[in-house]
Write a structure and sequence with these properties.
The protein is an alpha/beta fold and about 280 residues long. The protein contains eleven helices and eight strands. Strands 1, 2, 3, 4, 5, 6, 7 and 8 form an eight-stranded mixed beta sheet that branches. The N and C termini lie far apart (about 45 Å). Bound molecules: S-adenosylmethionine. S-adenosylmethionine binds next to α1 and α3.
Amino acid sequence: MSGETESASGADNGDAPAAEPLTFDTTVAHSARVHDYWLGGKDHYAADRAAGDAVIAAYPGIVESVRANRAFLARVVRFLAAEAGIRQFLDIGTGVPTANNTHEVAQSVASDCRVVYVDYDPVVLVHARALLAGSPEGATDYIDADLREPETILEQAARTLDLSRPVAVMLIAIMHLIGDDAEPYRLVARLTDAAAPGSYLALSQVASDIQAEQMAEAARRYNSLARETQRHRNRAEVTRFFDGLDLVEPGVVPVQEWRPGSVAEASARSAMWGGVARKR
Ligand SMILES: C[S@@+](CC[C@H](N)C(=O)[O-])C[C@H]1O[C@@H](n2cnc3c(N)ncnc32)[C@H](O)[C@@H]1O
């Protein structure tokens, strides 16, 4: 996709009485497209690049940080499939597909893994068909829905996932896009409450207390240019998302410190907290 005059995708974000739907608008930055820009993808517009560059100017480590988060995502999925025996994944805030998407990592461990992706961005929706090409033994589905409407997500996820059996609820690099007014802790609890015992929550989000001054300036600049504003959170605020669940080692840590697979992964820098926890 390219060009500033691209017509609206016609994406339907569902009946969203409580949450304002995300429409296709190239004149203002969208988180999925800015993220794609930082990761070196091709699905972004001038407004996305301007917001992305404004953040880079405030916090030059942002590209390394989002890469460290992607590596975290892959390690978490591998851990869940290979060590925790999880075969069902609900990945909310999918983003524009890139390397090591959840179904690729999960199905490389166990080809019968079932993965449901959820996002509300029309650009991600355009890629959904390609995302659906998983292994023949497993299943991959895509839901065009808003995290602020967890009931819709749970209802539609049940087409592909058996929610009476353990599932991994994945909220990777999305919660900083959910402001306090949307009751982020209630949203996460609604999803984990609906999950069976033995399920997992995997979550990462941008930190307010790592490189604090740079991150505060990055948030100010991003929020003045983007459609969805960012709410950075400190370690205690991120840990609170896991209340009532059992955090697996090493707990809530900078994403590169979560079970790094190599010295290179461990020595990356990020301004993101991440963790994984199990529901009893
Ligand atoms: C920063 S990207 C993260 C992508 C991927 N999870 C990763 O970690 O690489 C955040 C994604 O969350 C999506 N998103 C933000 N708010 C959302 C909401 N309220 N409901 C559904 N998706 C949302 C955006 O469209 C974007 O694709």
